[in-house]
Amino acid sequence: MRTRFDKQLDELHVELIKMGSMCEEAITLSVEVLKHASEKTINQIHTVDSAIDQKERDIENICIKLLLQQQPVASDLRMISAALKMISDMERIGDQAGDIAEMAAYLSDTESSSMVHLDSMGKATIKMVTNSVEAFVQSDRQLAEKVIDADDEVDRLFDTVKNELMDLIYNKGIDARAALDLLMTAKYFERIGDHAVNIAEWVVYSITGVHKSHE
C-alpha cells in the first residue's frame, strides 16, 4: 500500500514540475511580448495559461486520490495540502502573465528604461518560481527560504520602475497612459513574485508543519 502511495506522490511531483515549467514559459513569453508585441506571442501566452488551468485540475485530482485511496500520515497530509495551495498560486501566475499580454499592445511603442527593469523583474520571478517548485520536490527548506528572500530584489525593482516613471511624468518624458500601463505591468510582475513567495512558504510548511503567517 505504501509503495503505491509513494508512486502517486512521485506522480504529484512530476505534475508539479510540469506546472512550474508552464509558469516559467508564461513569464518568459510575457517578458518577450513586452519587447516585441505580436499577436502570435499573445496567443501563445493565453494558450499556456489555459494549459496551466488544466494542469491545476489534474493535480487536484491526484491530491484527492491520495487523500481518499490511501492513509497518509501527518507529514504526507502536510505535503498534499501544501501542493493544493501551491497550484492555486501557480494558476494565478498564469493569469497574471495573461494580464501582461493584454498590456503589451499599449506598450509596444513605449521607449523607457523601465522596460529594462521589467525584463529584470521577469527574469527574477522566473527564478523564484523555478526554485520554489524545486524546493518542494526536494524538500529543501533552505532553497525555499532563498526564494522568500529573493522577493526583496523584485520589490526593489518595482520601486525603481515606479520612481523612474514619476520622474518621466514630471519632466514630461512620457504620457500618462503609457506610464500607467508600465506601472501596472511592473505590479503584475511584483504579484508573480508574491505568489512565488507563497509557494515557498507552503514548502516550508510541508517540511516543518508551521506556516509563516501562522507563527
From TrEMBL:
One of its GO terms (biological process) is intracellular phosphate ion homeostasis. Plays a role in the regulation of phosphate uptake. This is Phosphate-specific transport system accessory protein PhoU. Its main location: cytoplasm. Keywords: Cytoplasm, Phosphate transport, Transport. Belongs to the PhoU family. One of its GO terms (cellular component) is cytoplasm. Residues 17-103, 119-203 form the PhoU domain. The gene is phoU. Homodimer. It is found in: Cytoplasm. SUPFAM superfamilies: PhoU-like.
